[in-house]
Amino acid sequence: MLQKSKKEEMVKELEEVIKKSESLVFVNFHGLKVSDETVLRRDLRKEGVNYKVSRKTLLARALQGKAEGVVPSLEGEVAIAYGGDEIIPAREIYNFQKTHKGLLNILGGIFKGKFVDGAYMLEIATIPSKEVLLSKLAFLFKSPMQRFAIALSEVAKTK
């Protein structure tokens, strides 16, 4: 059993993490092997995302008054993934979840100062990266010009 001072220190550390992070993802990691967790932590670290396992009671205490809304149900073993970006923590957990079926479950999170459920965090996780969105936009701009050039060349061939 932890001493009260150690618990207070852990709550303060969690409160600091919650305050500094742009978004936070609550993850149920029931059944995750140590080797898989090592891979998960390494992948998250590459993207600048931190991963912290916490007791639910201490996490619930640290979350009080930190965001608007109702804290999502935190069932099972709970960890948090957080970072300086709003989308990357959710996306990286989702990507790991896709490759390692049944090991992780997104329970919810904090996004833009509000508690959100797991379904909302999954929607956020599936938003493409900035580079992908910019390339799609460039393709959309290029497509009408390309079609116009083809039409002009066809008109020129007939004359």
Could you walk me through the main structural features you see in this protein, from its secondary elements to its overall organization?
The chain is α+β, with helices and mostly antiparallel strands and 159 residues long. The chain has two domains: 4-127, 2-Layer Sandwich (Alpha-Beta Plaits), CATH 3.30.70.1730; 128-159. It has helices spanning 4-20, 34-46, 56-63, 88-99, 118-125, 130-158, and strands at 23-28, 49-54, 78-83, 105-111, 114-117. A five-stranded antiparallel beta sheet has the order 2-3-1-4-5, with helices on both faces. A hairpin with a 2-residue loop joins strand 4 (105-111) and strand 5 (114-117). It is elongated, with a radius of gyration of 22 Å. 25% of the residues are buried.
Q: Secondary-structure blueprint of this entry?
A:
Layout (H helix, E strand, L loop, with lengths): L3 H17 L2 E6 L5 H13 L2 E6 L1 H8 L14 E6 L4 H12 L5 E7 L2 E4 H8 L4 H29 L1
Antiparallel strand pairs: 1-3, 1-4, 2-3, 4-5
Helix pairs in contact: 1-3, 4-5
